Amino acid sequence: MLKLSMPLILVTNDDGIQSEGLKELYRELSSLGDAYIVAPESEKSAVSHALTMHRPLKVEQLDERIFTVNGTPTDCVVVAVEKILPERPVVVASGINRGANMGDDLTYSGTVSAAIEGTLFSIPSMAISLACGNGEQQLYFSSAARFAKRLVQYLMKKGLPPDTLLNVNVPNIPYEQIKGVKFTRQGKRSYDNAIHETYDPWGRKHFWIGGGTPTWQRGNDTDFNAVSEGYISITPIHLDLTNYDALAHMRENWQGII
Questions:
Q1: Is 233 helix (H, G, I), strand (E, B) or coil?
Q2: pLDDT digits (tens, 9 = 90+) for 125-167
Q3: What is the DSSP string of 140-197?
Q4: How far apart are the C-alpha atoms of 48 and 77, rounded to whole Å?
Q5: CA atoms within 13 A on the CB side of 110
C-alpha cells in the first residue's frame, strides 16, 4: 500500500532553541504534519533580517527533526530550506515570540524576518507573537499555539498572495477569553527614554538601547488596538516597500532633478 507523505512544516524563532514558545508551537503543529525545528542556538531578538556572511555557520542536530544553527533567524530559514530539510516546507511558522511584534517593531524583529525569508522562498509564512509585558509572570503560550494551529491549517489550504506574509499577535490571556480575530494594519509607536547612559568601572560612558516606554497612536483598525481590546491581530505584510503614491508624484513633479 502506498504511504502518503505528510506535509512538512518548518518551525523557527528568534528567542532561541530553549524558548517555551517555540516548544509550544512545535507541539501543536506536529499534529498537522512532519514539523521540523531549525532555530538559533541562542536568543537573537531584534536582529532584523540579518544574514551571517563573515563566518561559517554550524548546525547541530538535537533530535530527529530538531536542529540549531549558530546564526540568525534568517540564517535558520535559508539553511533549513536549502540544506537540512528533506523537502520544501509547505508553511514556515516563526514564533511564538515572547512579547508583541506590532507597529514599527516589525522592522527590527527576528521573528518577523524569519517569515520574510520564507516568503522570499515563495513559501506561505507567518510570524506569531504573544503580546505579554516584561513583568508578566503568567504567559499563555498555549493560547497562541492553539490559534497558530488553526491558522496554519488555513494557510495549507488557501495559501497567501504573492510576496505576502502574516504577522500575528495574540493577547496574553486564556484562549477562552480571547474575543475573536481582527484583520488589522500595522500601527505606529514611539519610545520615550529608550537610550540610557551608563558608565564602566573606568568612568567611560556607554549607551544602552532598550527599556523605553512605548506610546501608541490609536486607530480602530491597528494591530495594537485589536490586541489591547482582547482580539488576535492578523496583519498581512507585503514585501514590496515601494510607496506608489510618492513614485507617481516624483515622476510627475521631479523631472527637473536630472
A1: strand
A2: 999 999 998 778 899 999 999 999 999 999 999 999 999 999 9
A3: -HHHHHHHHHHHHHHHHHH---TTEEEEEEEESS-GGG--EEEE-B---EEEES-EEE
A4: 13
A5: 25
Q: Are 225 and 187 in contact (CB under 8 A)?
A: yes
pLDDT band at 2 (very low <50, low <70, confident <90, very high): very low
Query: Residue 206: in which H helix or E strand, if any?
Result: strand 205-209
Residue-wise burial string across 119-134, b where 16 or more C-beta atoms lie within 10 A, e elsewhere:
bbbebbbbbbbbbbee
Count of CB atoms situated within 10 Å of the CB of 2: 4
Cell numbers found for residue 150: 488553526
Q: What percent of the chain has pLDDT over 90?
A: 74
pTM assigned to the model: 0.90
Q: Which among 181, 184, 174, 24 has a CA at the least distance from the CA of 98?
A: 24
Of the candidate CATH numbers 3.40.640.10, 3.40.50.1460, 3.40.1210.10, 3.90.1180.10, the domain formed by 8-188+218-257 belongs to 3.40.1210.10
Domain boundaries, the chain: 8-188+218-257
3-state secondary structure of 132: coil
What are the C-alpha distances in Å from 94 to residues 48, 111, 118?
A: 13, 6, 9
